[in-house]
């Protein structure tokens, strides 16, 4: 992963991560041990002869974390005068001048002090990476931009310091630092996360067990999806999905509501993603009652937190095949055929065509009331 660094100071703000390698330590909440784990790996690399320095470290008064950093060189921090106080920030220029093989940058989502060269700490990391220096960094799952609304729904907390998802998408390695909610609450009560004055309030707010359970699942699932997407891009033909993806095929028949509910239960039991597909004929218009029925299906899909897909095609089976491949579907739910024996003889069985076209996908054929 590491190589001898050739430091190049970028003349313009970099647009993407290019030269340096980026390893991100992510967790569900403060106190899971991200910084400690980062320091452990850095100390091991230092013993192996790598040139490792600390760019900025946020110990929050945790003695064991501070002790783990002993022996690692700290690049001098930048001092900034703000509101009659002298505060310190990561000094990107000093890191570039020092030109180590690896620099540790804690708390990626941090907002820099007004007057800094860049607004956010993750922007400083982009500059360091562009210079060919490897970076280890830390972040909590609630700081990712796309999860902001979901985190608010889970915890009731509005997270104001956020980073773009591309930070994880472009990272060379993402490490989930995980502990059980019970362990994290014990650490909090023992004063290992916050000062004693903040413990009770934290336990009754953000650190409630139900919040931690949901945030833990969110962190694990987000990183699993990230790994799956990267794996699929690298091995598009042979890659096997990590997460189940359920596609429910609905039509203008009333029985579609039953299919949708069954598909939602399957997706929920498998902890998978739900998609609902309606194939509309390009030359046939829906009646008012049919249009209302499809709108009901769409609304129910949204209530089940699924994605509703409407595709125009005069070949329903081809549309299902194409959608299943495009969406990486692993399970398909559809109703039993309404074709007559004559139609089956002439056009063939929809199920047989799907089985031939999607041999790796499981089909669920649900009985319907005629």
Automatic annotation (TrEMBL):
The keyword Ribonucleoprotein does not apply. InterPro entries: Histidine_kinase_KdpD, P-loop_NTPase, Rossmann-like_a/b/a_fold, Sig_transdc_His_kinase_KdpD_N, UspA. It comes from Limnospira platensis NIES-46. Residues 244-358 form the UspA domain. This is K+-transporting ATPase D chain. Residues 20-227 form the Signal transduction histidine kinase osmosensitive K+ channel sensor N-terminal domain. Keywords: Kinase, Transferase, Two-component regulatory system. SUPFAM superfamilies: Adenine nucleotide alpha hydrolases-like (SSF52402). CDD domains: USP_KdpD-like. Pfam families: KdpD, Usp.
């Amino acid at each position: 992963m590491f190589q001898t660094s050739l430091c190049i100071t970028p003349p313009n703000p970099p647009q993407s991560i290019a030269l340096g390698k980026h390893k991100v330590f992510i967790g569900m909440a403060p106190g899971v041990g991200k910084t400690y784990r980062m320091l452990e790996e850095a100390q091991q690399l230092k013993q192996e002869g790598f040139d490792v320095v600390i760019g900025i470290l946020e110990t929050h008064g945790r003695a064991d974390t501070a002790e783990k950093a002993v022996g690692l060189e700290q690049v001098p921090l930048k001092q900034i005068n703000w509101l009659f106080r002298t505060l310190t920030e990561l000094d990107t220029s000093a890191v570039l001048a020092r030109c180590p093989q690896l620099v540790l940058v804690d708390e990626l989502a941090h907002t820099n002090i007004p007057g800094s060269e860049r607004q956010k700490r993750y922007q400083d990391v982009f500059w360091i990476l562009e210079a060919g220096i490897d970076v280890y960094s830390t972040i909590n799952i609630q700081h990712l931009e796309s999860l902001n609304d979901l985190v608010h729904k889970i915890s009731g907390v509005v997270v104001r310091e956020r980073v773009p998802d591309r930070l994880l998408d472009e990272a060379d390695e993402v490490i989930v630092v995980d502990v059980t909610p019970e362990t994290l609450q014990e650490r909090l009560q023992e004063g290992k996360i916050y000062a004693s004055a903040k413990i009770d309030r934290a336990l009754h707010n953000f650190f409630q067990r139900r919040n931690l359970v949901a945030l833990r699942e969110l962190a694990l699932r987000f990183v699993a999806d990230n790994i799956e997407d990267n794996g699929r891009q690298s091995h598009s033909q042979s890659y096997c999905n990590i997460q189940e993806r359920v596609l429910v095929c609905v039509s203008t028949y009333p029985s579609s509501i039953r299919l949708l509910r069954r598909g939602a239960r399957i997706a929920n039991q498998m902890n998978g993603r739900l998609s609902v597909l309606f194939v509309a004929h390009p030359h046939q218009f829906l009646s008012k009652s049919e249009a209302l029925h499809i709108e009901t299906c769409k609304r129910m899909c949204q209530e089940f937190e699924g994605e509703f897909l409407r595709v125009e095609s005069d070949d329903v089976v081809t549309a299902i095949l194409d959608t299943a491949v495009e969406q990486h579907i692993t399970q398909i739910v559809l109703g039993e055929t309404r074709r007559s024996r004559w139609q089956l003889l002439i056009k063939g069985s929809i199920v047989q065509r799907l089985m031939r076209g999607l041999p790796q996908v499981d089909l669920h054929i649900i009985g319907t009331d005629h």
